[in-house]
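Predict the 3D structure for this chain.
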Amino acid sequence: MPKVLRCKHIGPDKHCQFEAHGDTQDEILEQVAAHAREVHGLKEVTQEMVDSAIANMKDVDQSVSETQPTIEEQKAKIIKLEAELETRKILNQDYVNQIKELSKEVGKAQALLEIEREKAKVVIDHSAST
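Done. Predicted structure below.
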């Protein structure tokens, strides 16, 4: 029976979309080893890696059902994303408020600097006239 192995199940990059397909373990292991070298820069394939790859190989019909998330999983993901969005909105508003406060402080500092410049100008003008 045809088998499949997904890199994200065994590799360092859990977002890697590479899949090795084949009728034998050896076919899949060859593909995975080449992918690991070329894409992930792996220099050596250890026995532990081979064992993990073999353990994570799935029959194609079994694998297909695993790739389809259930409605409950989809709902949970939506809830999680909505919560994350709310958190980001709150953080964004916090940043906006901080920027407004900093802008006020910068404005005050600029006004004080202008007052000091005027004072210095008066002192210089007074020194020049005496």
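Residues 71-129 form the longest helix (59 residues).
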